[in-house]
Specification:
Layout: E1 3-8, E2 14-15, H1 33-40, E3 46-51, E4 54-58, E5 66-69, E6 75-79, E7 93-97, E8 102-106, H2 114-119, E9 131-140, E10 146-154, E11 158-165, E12 170-179
Antiparallel strand pairs: 1-2, 1-3, 3-4, 5-6, 6-7, 7-8, 9-10, 10-11, 11-12
Length: 180
C-alpha cells in the first residue's frame, strides 16, 4: 500500500495534498500559502510516495508532472506534460504500481461525452493539444463509488472527465465535460 503520498515542488520541498473525492475541497486545503505559491508558480513539479519503506519519486527538472494515487492506495496515475520527450500526448499518462513499476501506458480513448460529439465537427486544432491527458483525481461515479477520474483535454480548450479502471487501464463512464 502507498504511504505518505506527496507533491514535490521545484525546490524539492514536499507538500501533503488533501486527497478527496469531494469536489468542494481543494487539493491544497491544508498547504501553507508559501508552499502553495512555490508549487503552483514553478515549472518543475513532481510526485513522491513511500512503499515498503522505499521512496518512489517521479520528478524531472523543467517538467510539470502531476499524479494522484488510486482510491485503494495501490497505484499512482501520473500525468506528464503534453509535450514530454518520452511520453507526449495523446499518450502522456502512466499507471505506476505502488513499487514504482509501470503497470499501464495510457492512450487517450475515444471521447464519449455529448460535448465532444458536438465539438467533433468543429475540431480542427492540430498539434499536441488536440488530445491529451490533463489531470487526475478522485470523483464519484453514477453509482456513488469513489473512483479514479482522469481529465482529458481536447481541441485545446475543452475537457472530458472519465472513470479509469487502474487495474486494466480501461476507461469507463463520462463523469463530466466542459470548457477550460
Amino acid at each position: 500500500m502507498i504511504n505518505d503520498f506527496r507533491l514535490v515542488t521545484g525546490k524539492r520541498n514536499l507538500i501533503k495534498p488533501h486527497l478527496s473525492s469531494d469536489g468542494s475541497t481543494s487539493l491544497y486545503e491544508f498547504v501553507s500559502d508559501e508552499d502553495y505559491r512555490e508549487y503552483t508558480n514553478n515549472l518543475t513539479q513532481g510526485v513522491r510516495w513511500e512503499f515498503l519503506n522505499r521512496e518512489i519519486e517521479i520528478f524531472e527538472i523543467g517538467q510539470s508532472i502531476s499524479g494522484y494515487p488510486t482510491p485503494d492506495m495501490e497505484k499512482v496515475v501520473v500525468i506528464y506534460p503534453y509535450n514530454h520527450a518520452v511520453y507526449p500526448s495523446p499518450s502522456n499518462a502512466l499507471i505506476y504500481s505502488a513499487d514504482g513499476n509501470i503497470r499501464h501506458h495510457l492512450k487517450v480513448p475515444k471521447l464519449i461525452s455529448e460535448l465532444a460529439m458536438q465539438r467533433q465537427r468543429f475540431m480542427n486544432y492540430e498539434g499536441p493539444l488536440k488530445l491529451y491527458f490533463d489531470g487526475v483525481s478522485w470523483a464519484k461515479n453514477s453509482r456513488g463509488e469513489t473512483v479514479t477520474a482522469v481529465t482529458i483535454g481536447f481541441d485545446r480548450d475543452w475537457l472530458e472527465q472519465r472513470e479509469l479502471d487502474p487495474d486494466t487501464g480501461e476507461f469507463g463512464e463520462c463523469l463530466s465535460s466542459g470548457r477550460r
